[in-house]
Structure formats: C-alpha cells, structure tokens
Design brief:
Keywords: Bacterial flagellum, Cell projection, Cilium, Flagellum, Secreted
CATH architecture of the largest domain: Up-down Bundle
Helix content: 40-55%
Largest sheet: 5 strands, antiparallel
CATH superfamily of the largest domain: f41 fragment of flagellin, N-terminal domain
Number of domains: 2
Strand content: 15-25%
Radius of gyration: 41 Å
CATH topology of the largest domain: f41 fragment of flagellin, N-terminal domain
Protein name: Flagellar hook-associated protein FlgL
Pfam families: Flagellin_C, Flagellin_N
Family: Belongs to the bacterial flagellin family.
Number of strands: 15
InterPro entries: Flagell_FlgL, Flagellin, Flagellin_C, Flagellin_N
Structural class: alpha+beta
C-alpha cells in the first residue's frame, strides 16, 4: 500500500481540525454553561427542555394571575369589611332612635346621619380598582353597579364572575357581583317579616318573631286582627280565621309554626301582619329607616308604628350584616385557597427548575476535564504533524 506525502499531510490536517472543532465546542459549552449548543446535539433533551420551559412559563403566569387575584380579593374584602362597620353604626343609630326619650327633631338629626351613611354605602358598592373598573358589576365592569332611581335602588351590572386560573387545575372567582353582595338579602328575621298596619290607633309594637316549629312552617302569610283590646283573631291569607285567643301583653302569638310578640296597649281594629321574608337590597333597608325617622310622630299610635318600623329595620340590618359577614368569610376562604395554591406553584416551579437544570446545565467538572484532554490531543496532533511534514527522501540523498 502506497501512502503519498499529500495523503499524510491531508490526514494530519484533518486530525488537527477535528480536535480543534471538539475543543471549540467544549469551549462554547463552558462559556454558555449549556451542555447542548443546538437541538441536533441531543434531540430528546431538546424536546424535554422545551416541555419544561413551557411548564415553567405556565407556572410563572399562574403566579402573575395569583398576584392580580389577591389584589382584587383584598380590595373586595376591605370594602365588605367597611360596609359591615357602616351597618353596625347604622344599627347603633337605630337603637338610639328607638329610645322613647327621643323627639321628632332628634330623630330627624339621626336620620340626617343615616343619609350620610347611606351615601357612603352606595360609594362602597361603586368601588373601582386601580384600573378604574367597578369591582361589583360582574362582567359590566365599565358601569357603576348601583344607582338610585325614582322607584328605588337598582343594580346595573350582571351576575357574572370572572374565573382566574391560578393552577393547572384550579380557578378562583376574582370577586362577587353586587347583586349577590348588596341586593339579594332576606329581610325580617330571614324566614318571615312582621309589620304593623299604618292605620293602627293603639300602642302595640310587634317584634321580629321566630320559627318555633319548623315542621309546621310553610312560609304562609297571616294577619293578627284585634277584635277588642283583649281579644284577637289570626287570619290566613284568604281571610279565614284560623285561631282566636285572649291578648297578653308581651305573650307569644302562634301561627303556622311561627311565634311573634306584641307589647303595649292595643285598640280594636289594630292589625299586624306576618309574611314570608323577601329579597331586598341593603340601601332600601337604610332608606326606609331614614324615612321613618324623618316622619313626625305625634300620637301614641304613630309612635308605636314607628317603633315597629325601627324594630323591623334592626332585624333587616342584622340580616344584612350576617349576609356581609358570610360574604367576607367566602372571600377569606378564597384568599386561603389562593395562598395554598401559590405554595403549590412555588414547589412545582422549584421542581421544574431542578429538572430543567439537569437537562440543560453543563457539568463543569466533566467539561473542564474534557477540555484539558482535548487540548492535549490537539497539541499532540500538532506536534505529530510537525514531525511528519519534515520527512522526505531528499533529506537522505
């Protein structure tokens, strides 16, 4: 087999170039810290790296969503908490106004503060976030949720709840529509409501009552009609007498599984009604109380009617506060769920980062050892070539 000088030179140069290419590749890996300079170096690793990178980006997006959601829920919780404090103040004013020592003028002064609190409550309901969007309008975030019309307070939003994804399989609402927070509240004691007839002339005052026999409670309506100062009839919704009894001041009057109490002297013809609780908005509850306190009461019958109205208002306020407290608890539960999901996302992010490091990051100890070995191989190839290129028959002639 004949080997020419040109073949020797070509082989030597090829070997040096191969060693140089390997050295340059290792040098690039050391410079970038990546063990794969192109997908072709490790196709399986490249696909795995892409999958992990996408998973990491999704987790980062979940974290951003969680930050936005926490801000929205924090704002809503603050507004609901402020509304509860406001209603507590309204309740205190109601009890103050219910004192027999109050005059028409002092009750009107209390009503003036109630009006201010009512305006504050409407302002709470129309709260906007940092972007200027109304937080209680549902999907209609560009429209103020609560406005007052000639017929009362109306809700201008919808019942929508935006769901924000905070985990691979977890989404949470970013708020509650105003229709659920401020509008749909059962009045009275939450099961039924009582009221005194405006035409009453006696001094009887009815309380909020309670359900004493759930098995008989069918949400029926009844009328308590006094046939004399010491006798009354209980009539059903059709006007039929279902029971009659002697009146005892402060004693229980039973009807349809319900018990109510009337205190004070009554007159023949006085009537009191029991009706199923209805959905009502908070604003109308406070408005009705303010109107009652603004109306002058001069006779004993008028003052008794006002006392019954204030008692009804206090029951309504208690229901409204319970409703808001439940709403606040729901918001708090969401924030706790978000916190737990955030912790899960942090753990997942750490695991993804670890897996991504194993796939992409360079083993520096191995790479430096390989670089040193390749450098020695290149130097050996260069020295061998310098020796070979000096070989010639002419040196021996």
């Amino acid at each position: 087999m004949r080997i020419s000088s040109s073949q020797i030179y070509a082989t030597g140069v090829s070997n040096m170039l191969t060693q140089q290419a390997k050295l340059v590749e290792t040098q690039s890996q050391l410079a970038t810290g990546q063990n794969r300079l192109s997908p072709s170096d490790d196709p399986v690793g490249a696909v795995r790296s892409l999958e992990l990178t996408r998973a990491q980006e999704k987790t980062e997006q979940y974290d951003r969503n969680g930050t936005i959601l926490n801000s929205r829920l924090g704002l809503e919780e603050s507004v609901v908490s402020g509304s509860i404090d406001l209603l507590q103040r309204v309740r205190e004013l109601s009890i103050q106004a219910n004192n027999a020592t109050q005059s028409n003028e002092s009750r009107q002064s209390i009503a003036a503060e109630l009006r201010q609190q009512l305006d504050n409550l409407v302002s709470y309901a129309n709260t906007t976030d940092s972007s200027g969007n109304y937080i209680f309008s549902g999907y209609q975030e560009g429209s103020a949720p609560i406005s007052k019309t000639a017929s009362g307070y109306v809700y201008n939003g919808d019942d929508g709840q935006r769901q924000i994804q905070v985990g691979p399989a977890r989404s949470l609402p970013d708020g509650d529509p105003g229709s659920e927070v401020f509008m749909n509240i059962l009045n009275g004691n939450g099961q039924f409501q009582t009221a005194a007839n405006a035409a009453n002339t006696g001094g009887g005052v009815i309380d909020a009552g309670s359900v004493t026999d759930p098995s008989q409670f069918n949400r029926e309506s009844f009328t308590i009609r006094f046939t004399s100062e010491s006798q009354y009839d209980v009539l059903d919704a059709g006007g039929a007498v279902v029971s009659s009894a002697a009146y005892q001041d402060g004693g229980d009057i039973l009807a349809g599984g319900m018990a109510v109490s009337i205190q004070g002297p009554v007159a023949a013809g006085d009537e009191f009604t029991i009706a199923p609780a209805q959905r009502q908005d908070i604003f109308s509850m406070v408005e009705a109380l303010a109107v009652s306190l603004e109306t002058p009461r001069n006779s004993a019958g008028d003052r008794a009617l006002q006392t019954s109205e204030i008692n009804t208002a206090i029951s309504n306020l208690d229901q409204a506060m319970d409703h808001l407290i439940n709403t606040q608890a729901t918001i708090g539960a969401r924030m706790q769920s978000l916190e737990r999901q955030t912790d899960l996302n942090a753990g997942a992010s750490l695991q993804i980062a670890t897996s991504l490091s194993l796939v992409n990051d360079l083993d520096y100890a191995e790479a430096i050892s390989r670089f040193t070995q390749q450098q020695a191989s290149l130097q050996a190839a260069q020295q061998a070539f310098s020796k070979v290129q000096g070989l010639s028959l002419f040196n021996y002639i």
